[in-house]
Amino acid sequence: MGTSRRPALLAVAAGLLVAACTTGGAGGGGAAPAPRSDEQVTVSVWSNFADRELAALNRVLDGFHAKHPNITVRSEGSQDDDKILQSIRGGTAPDVAISFSTDQLGQYCSTGAWQNLGPYLERDKVDLDQIPKAVRDYTEYRGTRCAMPLLADVYGLYYNKELFAKAGITSPPRTLSELTDIAKRLTVFNPDGSIQVAGFVPTINFYNHRPQMLAPHWNARWQKPDGSSALASDPGWKEMFTWLKELVDFYGRDRLAKFTASAGQQYSADNAFQQGRVAMMIDGEYRTAFVSQYSPNLAYGTAPFPVADSRQNLHGTGYATGTIIGIPRGAKNAGAAWELVKHLTTDTDALVELSNGLKNVPTTRDALRSPKLQADENFQTFTKISESPNLASSPSSPTLASAVKFTEDFATRWLNGEVANLDEGLAALAKQIDDNAALGGK
Q1: Does the keyword Transport apply (predicted)?
Q2: Average pLDDT for residues 374-400, to the nearest whole number?
């Protein structure tokens, strides 16, 4: 997790999902039995992992095979959600699917594209309380659990210790007003007015600077209790967009555009934070692995991302998303597939080994506290955030991906000065989200 697959896919075609669910029954109506110990079975696993990450997954799969020698695992990487859904529609689905697109979970569960795992969980008495609530929330939709979490991405603040020390700053910010002050103090302009070092880049979609990662720090909610959009009614959204606009105005839109255009790619050695050109940013725990690989001499620290001054009780919160795993509709060996899914998501040693290989946060409390977990001080920040009672995730919804995309587009227009009135703009955004939901996201 945490390579070019981030951010999660936002545009899997709704028509494809609908088509995928018109061939055969809903699937997962009951728990298929596990294969007998003398029954030879091959389970196919599709994921979008590649290279180092795929190798890490395959090592854990080898461990499963060692425990279940009658179950052979065939792992295929570089298989994204579009390919998985096409295989479901064509009747050639893998037995196990691993997805990086939690925004699509509502579609998978509501349409039956991924089978309901409830009967398996009940039969095998799986303790879901081992999983943090926010992580449980993004792997089920309206009581239907069609996925299990396979490690999590948890987001926090990265900051450059050397730049902090030069400015006499001794600790990371805890509130957004403190972040603003530090960002301005650490920003360096060239003689021609261009940005040499940015204290913090407020541009939406610059690296992982995205609405869903930021929203929890204002306690901004996506939905009202009735499921309709809360973008216009929740004051956190207006506060967030106002804060972003003030920082954009400090830098200047044109200056920011030139700076971000020259910044290195997010998952490369030229990442602007790793190069010392950005002093603070929001990112996931996996960035620790990239810094170690590409910038081992970078003096940096991690901390919970600052919260709104009026919501300091939330400090320590963060946003969680992650990899999800399930049994697609039409899987030929569902019973064996469940044994593998259960192993990967509930076995402490398997989760810890995968976490150590991928540098993502484990998704059970036992794995989080395992002495085998390789977690330095910077990584531990994210394991602590993951156990915060205020940890947040986006709500599961068949149209969440569209809502996120609409919000990102609105944020860009707002920050570019194309929205004259924020209240009216947010009202129009909420209506757009609700109208799209009424059409089923089509």
Answers
A1: yes
A2: 94
Q: What is the mean pLDDT of the chain?
A: 92
Per-residue pLDDT, 181: 98
How many C-beta atoms lie closer than 10 Å to residue 268's C-beta? Answer: 11
User: Contact 201/401 with Cβ under 8 angstroms?
Assistant: no
Domain boundary assignment for the chain: 14-153+320-386
Percent of the chain with pLDDT over 90: 88
| 439: phi then psi, degrees, rounded to nearest 5 | -90, 5
Residue 373 neighbours by CB under 8 Å, 6+ apart: 352, 355, 356, 362, 367, 383
Architecture of the domain delimited by 14-153+320-386:
3-Layer(aba) Sandwich (3.40)
pLDDT tens digits for range 88-115 = 999 999 999 999 988 888 889 999 999 9
Contact between 80 and 10 (Cβ < 8 Å): no
Residues 6+ apart with CB under 8 A from 360: 1, 2, 151, 152, 153, 284, 285, 286, 322, 323, 354
Name the pTM for this structure: 0.90
